[in-house]
Amino acid sequence: MARILVIDDERAIRNTLKEILEFEGYTVDVAADGKAGVEAARKQPYDLVYCDVKMPGMDGIEVLEQVPDTTFIMISGHATVETAVEALKKGAFDFLEKPIDLNRLLVTTKNALDRSQLQTEVKTKTEEVHKLRRQLSHQNEMIGESDAIRRVREVIDKVAATDARVLITGGNGTGKEVVARMIHALSQRSKQPLVEVNCAAIPSELIESELFGHMKGSFTGAVKDRAGKFEQADGGTLFLDEIGDMSLAAQTKVLRALQENEVTRVGSDKTIRVNVRVLAATNKNLKDEIAKGTFREDLFHRLNVIPIHVPDLDERKDDIPLLVDYFNKQISSEQGRACKAFSEEALLALQQHHWQGNVRELRNVVERLIILADNPVTEQDIRAFA
Which CATH number goes with the domain that contains 201? Predict the structure, then answer.
């Protein structure tokens, strides 16, 4: 239940408001003057404050100015239009004259609390959005100053502003998704959707429906019409991750979509025009897959307009101290922990380690060390936890 503070130098008014509001189920505190009211509001957050305007010492307008981000209703037995206007300009929700009408009191209280709750929800949602944006911005960062990473950044900068298709290759955990997000974020399509599809995670019998959509009744479980990923990405970017795991049947349809800029939903004969930039990624050697007959050569050439290879972490070990520092700060912030110090010997041990899982594995190790290792992290900790 909402907590309300009543500030008034008249005991009868304080007690009357307290009794009425408590009868309505609110928790009510009182203060006999402006100074006491400010002190109370600073110790305890209130959902609503009723405050008299004319009080000895600190008047109600001064109290209103000293307690920001709180919903105020001003009350006065000597109200003037100028006073009411000033209070509202200072941020008061409403202004009531004494003697206070009971119905007006209850309606105004409800309306003020509804607004206070809405403001709290908006503030919470805004903070969540900011947090999500920070997390997304972290996902779009490529950390490192090695020559290999600089070359990747240079290609991204050149290709991002175009609509050229890009084939991103590299081992698991190297950061192929980060490259795709960077290209989209720097492109003219950045305000449009980036739709990501993990081709390896979708069963082969569902990949066509996932990419191109389906019509109601076209197969068991198709209970309504559904747009596919190509349609969802219209105007933006479609990222086909692990495209080397896509079935040949789906590859044929993807090739047609790239050639014609149109798709057909499963169970329909109607074509739908789409304007999509396609980025693809794989940890496989697609030329080997072509030789084995598991990947279409014509689709490879459609996708491989601009190739970008993301190097393994073992190929850029000079970046490991920068990555450790970045992950240390990021993970510590997410978990509400203090950052750990890493000794020079510990960093050297990390650089000498073989990173089969690449950057993703390094991040996991750093998180493990933040949770389990002492401060500072030593070479012995690396041996124990890496």
Answer: 3.40.50.300
Largest CA distance in the chain: 92
Count of structural domains, the chain: 3
Where among 256, 280, 311 does a domain terminate? 311
CATH, residue 360: 1.10.8.60
Residue 133 lies in a domain: no
pLDDT digits (tens, 9 = 90+) for 203-220: 878 888 999 999 988 888
Length of the chain: 386
Distance CA 278, CA 19 (A): 67
Contact 33, 56 (CB under 8 A): yes
Distant-in-sequence, close-in-space partners of 103: CB < 8 Å, separation ≥ 6: none
Position 122 scores a pLDDT of: 78
Q: From edge to edge, which strands make up the β-sheet containing 166-169?
A: 194-198, 237-241, 277-282, 166-169, 306-309
Helix (H) / strand (E) element for 327: namely helix 320-335
Determine the pLDDT at residue 124. 67
Q: Is the pLDDT of residue 375 over 70?
A: yes
Q: What are residue 213's phi and psi, to 5 degrees?
A: 85, 175
Question: What does the alpha-carbon distance between residue 377 and residue 367 come to, in Å, rounded to a whole number?
Answer: 12
Judged against a pLDDT cut of 70, whether residue 9 lies above it is answered with yes
Task: Quote the domain boundaries for residue 183.
Answer: 144-311
Are 253 and 324 within one domain? no
